[in-house]
Structure formats: structure tokens, C-alpha cells
Amino acid sequence: MNVDASGQDSDSADEGSARGALYESRRKIFPKRAEGRFRRFKWLVMLITLGIYYLTPWIRWDRGPYAPDQAVLVDLANRRFYFFFIEIWPQEFFYVAGLLVMAGFGLFLVTSAVGRAWCGYTCPQTVWVDLFLLVEGWIEGDRNARMKLDAGPWTFDKIRKRVFKHAIWMAISVSTGGAWIFYFADAPTLAYDVVVGNAALVAYSTIAVLASITYVFGGLLREQVCIYMCPWPRIQAAMLDDDSLVVTYNDWRGEPRNRHAKKLAAAGEPVGDCVDCNACVAVCPMGIDIRDGQQLACITCALCIDACDSVMDKIGKPRGLIAYATLNEYQSNMELATDNGTTRINPKKVRDADGSFVDQVRHFDWRIIFRARTLLYMGVWSAVGVAMLIALLNRDRLEVNVLHDRNPQYVLESDGSIRNGYTIRLLNMIPEPRTILLSLDGLPDATMKINGLSSDDGRLFAVSVDPDKATTLKVFVTVPARALPDGNESFSFIAEDRSSHEHDRYNATFNSPEGKK
Q1: What is the DSSP letter of 60?
Q2: 381-409 average pLDDT score
Q3: Which of 69, 290, 298, 512 has the fewest CB atoms inside 10 Å of its own CB, making it the most exposed?
Q4: Is the Cβ–Cβ distance between 254 and 291 less than 8 Å?
């Protein structure tokens, strides 16, 4: 054993150096701009999602003079959530929980049907990276120009382009953080306060934090967020099965690949459709080679399909060398091309003499999407949605809550009658003032008195309640000595709005000494 001057085993050190570093250094990725139907679809999704995010806080919705007119608003101060004609109170948070359940099963459904389509098209990381790459390509040029600029010396032109690019990235990032805070306050008012410096510190802090995250994640880290930080690539494997559609390189027709296919074909050698042009690698925003098989880094954005299809069109080959395919479909065709795995891939086994595919080659059948697993996810997703819709359409916007005084539980009056005290909250959950009739049901001889409303006793009172607020009342219920119940007795407070035919009932208890007086 050799020991160096530091006391370290030099043989072990040499072995460690030979093995290389524990972590691979990041290789910069310069994706080429793709053209094709999937790229156009990604542009459309980016336009829709960014439009929804940036513009939604500015949409107005008239709810009358007693409620905010912002269509989508999370009113933390008043603990309300407004979504167009829907208003959610804190005790109705189960609607938000239901939406989260629907989102989860929706993600399971999409993944089991078409793989990581969420990652490739609608994930915020993907959308903002696409936007940042669009800016980068507009300023620095396409792939080759960006690679040349990055490798070149720091000239004035390079500095100018880099400063301009990062300035636009930062503007986008600040706009992203700014758009987020507009969901929590009136957008025009808050925007003015932010510009003139009158907004709260939390608004500026939120903008700074979200702008930093957007800039770092979308502009600097990019694919590293998907590979190393996001848990979904590791979870999604449990959502896939042999009939899930994923982006696949069909090597059963592409191998053996060669850039001199015509010469080899003329010599009678087996040649696949892949001409090894690396167009699929050049357009990949994750920097992977789809021809190496399924990989954790693949977000199934399908840009490699567009790139490959364009090459197939140029050389007169059918599209689909790289395509969405299921594992069962791929394995069936691979067995055909290799004689059930006994030989190397021979593309002649999957083609007729005229070059068309033989009948045994399996192609995509859209009916495979409607299988037991996806139907189960769809059923659960639909059931939760229908249940929430029914609950939403049938919910009352009037509630009464009652809290019995605990100390004392009852008071003995001088005439022998017993009085109980209650704190009643009337919840008017519409943005309009209205008159609520509060009455007793049960205890036929009992009367009630409402502090601050009337000095007289009665069994029915009209209470004016404020719009979209809870009104608190102090109520005393008195039972005369001749009608005292034997111990505790149940009765109800009834709140009713006769104009809207809404009513609510709260079952309460009247406490009295044991035995009638």
C-alpha cells in the first residue's frame, strides 16, 4: 500500500479519480426551435395558460354594491373566496378540498392515458421555460448562434445581448410575482399602490420572492428543476402501465441507423429509417436522446416527434419513427422485427417489398385510452365533480349557529321562571342586506328577548342583517314557572328569509333545575 505525504492511501485516491466525480457537472442545453403540430399545440397551451394567469385578476364581475367586483378574488381580510358567481366562506372549505381531489385524480387520469403530458405542456415550469427560451432565441438566435455566442469571448455585442435578455427575463419574473398578488386584492387599486409605493410590505416581499423563483427556475435552472427538484418524475412511474401512451423511439423500424442509408441499401445491407441526424436531440429542452429509451428526464413534450417527422418528410419515409406509443404496441412490433428476440433488428421483417408496413405491425388504436384503469379514474373524478356541483347548487346562503351560555347555565327569576342565555350568529352569505325572521320551535310557553333589538318578549322577531356578514345576537329564552320542563328539554331556533324561501334550524337545549317548580 502506498501512502502519500498527507497520510492518504494513494492507491485509493487513484481509484477514486478513475471513477470520476460523484456528481456530474451540468452541461448547458441549447434547444433548437422545433416546428410542427406538437410545437404549435405547445404555443397554444402557453398562450392560454399565461393569458389566464396574467389577465384573470383584471376581469370584473358585478355582485352589487356590497361585494367586490373582481371576478376571482381571495379576500383574506374578510375570509372569502370569490369565483365569478360563486362565493366560498371559511366553513365551506370542503369545496376547495374537493377541487384538490379532482386535480389529483385528473393528474392520475392524464398520466395513465398519455404519460407526462402535464409536465410537457401545462406545468408552470415548462410554460415559463418555454417563454424564457422564446426570449432567448429572439435575442441571441437559434441553437447554433447561441452555442457560438456562449463559447465566444465577452465582446460588447455579447454583453449587450446578455444584459438585454436577462432584463426581459427579470421583467417577466416581476410581472409573474405582481400578477400573483392581484388575486388577493382589488387589482387596479393594488397596482396603483405598488407603482406609487403605497402598497403593504408583504406585497413587495411577495413580488420579490416569486420574481426570484421565476427567474432562477425558468431562466437559470431550467431542466434541473424537473430532474432533481420535482418529485413527479419519480411518482409517475406508478401511474403508467403497458397501455399508457409515451413518447417512444421505434427502433424496430429505425435500426440499424446510418447516415449513408442509400449506399448500404444499394449494397443489400439492412438499414433502418433513422439517419442519425440528431434532430431529435437538438430540439429536446431536457437535452436527452429519446433513442436511448424511456428516461426520467423526458417530459413527453413531443418536440422530438416534430423534429423527426420533418426529417422523415424530407427523405420520403413515413412519419412515426418517434411517436406516442404504448409498451404493448412497441414490444409486439419489436418481437416481429427480431423474430421474438432471436435475431438482431431487421427492418425488412416489418415491411413488404414495396416498403409499406406488413399487416402484423401494430399501430395506435385510440380505443386503448378507454380501459379499466382510466375509466376508474374518470369515474372517481366525475363522481367528486358531480357531488360538488349538486352541493353547490343546493346549498343555503343562510345559516344560524347557537352557543349556550355556560356560566350560569340558567338563571332563576324572582317570579320562579327560568331564563337561559344564548349567543346566536346569523350568517347572511349573499352580498345583499335582508330581513331574517328568528323564531322558536318547541317550548310552547317560552318567550325570548333580543338585547338591543326590542324590550318586549316574544316568539318571533324580525332581524335586519348586513350583506355578506355574520350578525351576532344576545338572546334570552324564558320559561314561566308553571311550564318548566322536568330537567333539560330540546327546542329549536329557526331563521327564515321568506323572500328567498331559505331557512335554517339549530337544535338547542333549555336547561332548568331537576323537577318542576
Answers
A1: B
A2: 92
A3: 69
A4: yes
Beta strands at 411-412 and 489-497: parallel, antiparallel or unpaired = unpaired
Radius of gyration of the chain (CA): 35
Contact 273, 312 (CB under 8 A): yes
**Distance, CA of 104 to chain centre:** 9
Amino acid at 270: P
pLDDT for res 46: 96
Q: End-to-end CA distance of the chain: give it in Å, rounded.
A: 103
* Beta strand spans in 377-444 (E): 398-404, 411-412, 418-428, 434-441
Sequential DSSP letters for 125-144: HHHHHHHHHHHHHHHH-SHH
Average pLDDT, the chain: 89
Joined grid coordinates for residue 457: 318578549
Nearest to 87 by CA among 65, 76, 72, 77: 72
CB neighbours of residue 226 within 10 Å: 24
Kindly report, residue by residue over 322-338, the tens digit of the pLDDT: 999 999 999 999 999 99
Question: What's the CA gap between 142 and 31, in Å, rounded?
Answer: 8
- Closest of 78, 64, 84 to residue 433, by C-alpha: 64
**13 falls in which pLDDT band (50, 70, 90)?**
very low
